[in-house]
Amino acid sequence: MFDNSALALAAADAAGAQYVETDCRATADGDAVLFHDETLQRLLGDPRPVAEVGTRELAALFASHGGLLTLGEALEAFPALRFNVDVKDLSAAADVGRAVAAHAHRVLLTSFDDRNRRAALDAARAAGAEVLPASSGGRSAIALLRLASALRLTRWTRRILRNLDAVQIPESFGALRVFTPRLVDAVHDAGAEVHVWTINDPERMRALVDGGADGIVTDRADLAIATLRPS
């Protein structure tokens, strides 16, 4: 099953998932579509960047691979799901913001590059969102937070997390442990959540939640639901 496809979202919804993580890139028409990679190479064997392909052509190419959705279409098609949206490039931010404006109560925006996330939030505000979507910090926020929590710099930690609702982190980065008790405590003290990606092993899922993780990003929604569903 192809990631970010309509079929993948439908499968997660059918499995009982309440939250889905997806990625957005802009097509040549400026539409924010659910697509992870910069190019079509891995999924379709086509070397062109997503940004150089029109939305209709991309939808036709993706028709036999689970179905392409714009973010707006996905939000309308799955009204019960909550969406974690990774804004992959700055050119997608404006359409992401417009798409989520009416659905902000069930959307969390994130990006490795905080400029993308902030631009999407600004676009949602400009589109008349009554409340802004939740948001998670990018690479620089995570790096600063890891350092500040290790040094127990409470004021600095709270400043980093100001206006953020979550941090989404890997369990480790190379030899560096990112998910630590001090980081978890610091984030919770500031009133935010810790989400860990990408965990597909049930034992690790359970251990991370037991260690304070508020959410697990996974490719295996079925395993996560079976493992973490309250008994």
Automatic annotation (TrEMBL):
<dbReference type="GO" id="GO:0006629">
    <property type="term" value="P:lipid metabolic process"/>
</dbReference>
<dbReference type="InterPro" id="IPR030395">
    <property type="entry name" value="GP_PDE_dom"/>
</dbReference>
<feature type="domain" description="GP-PDE">
    <location>
        <begin position="1"/>
        <end position="228"/>
    </location>
</feature>
<dbReference type="InterPro" id="IPR017946">
    <property type="entry name" value="PLC-like_Pdiesterase_TIM-brl"/>
</dbReference>
<protein>
    <submittedName>
        <fullName>Cytoplasmic glycerophosphodiester phosphodiesterase</fullName>
    </submittedName>
</protein>
<dbReference type="Pfam" id="PF03009">
    <property type="entry name" value="GDPD"/>
</dbReference>
<dbReference type="GO" id="GO:0008081">
    <property type="term" value="F:phosphoric diester hydrolase activity"/>
</dbReference>
